[in-house]
């Protein structure tokens, strides 16, 4: 049996290319960070893109809910966490949390994902 972390944590520095004119993390940059940590975690769990592509199956984001307390600023260091929440018949749920260096919660999010067949287009 393979072991993988139930919660994946990544320390992230908010670089200038991740922020807008207001020097705050942009929504597109946040979504990229969420996608990357999700992808890394499912790869560790052996159900990621590398494993599924041989069967022509792919993960597709179906919903994303984000509650923001505060967006991090340029040069700030944050910790982004993700974990599997639960799995239904065709939907997998994943939670996220971002905290600052003092442990203050910046945002929480929940996403739902489905696996689809690229040949048939079916879930």
**Which regions have little confidence, pLDDT < 50, spanning 5+ residues?**
none
Can you list the strand order of the major beta sheet? 1-3-4-5-2
Which structural class matches the secondary elements?
alpha+beta
Binned, the helix content reads: 10-25%
Instruction: Tell me the total number of β-strands.
Output: 5
Number of helices: 2
Biggest pleated sheet: 5 strands, antiparallel
Whole-number mean pLDDT: 92
Give the topology string: H per helix, E per strand: EHHEEEE
C-alpha geometry: elongated
Task: Give an overview of the whole structure.
- The protein is an alpha+beta fold and 123 residues long.
- Helix content is 18%, strand content 42%.
- A five-stranded antiparallel beta sheet has the order 1-3-4-5-2, with helices on one face.
- The longest helix is centred in the first third of the chain and has 18 residues, at 27-44.
- The radius of gyration is 16 Å and the shape is elongated.
- The model has no long low-confidence stretch (mean pLDDT 92).
Characteristic terms for this protein:
123 residues; alpha+beta; 5-stranded antiparallel β-sheet; 2 helices; 5 strands; 42% strand; elongated
Give a nutshell description of this structure.
This protein is elongated. It has helices spanning 27-44, 49-52, and strands at residues 7-13, 57-68, 77-87, 92-100, 105-117.
Give a topology summary:
Layout: E1 7-13, H1 27-44, H2 49-52, E2 57-68, E3 77-87, E4 92-100, E5 105-117
Antiparallel strand pairs: 1-3, 2-5, 3-4, 4-5
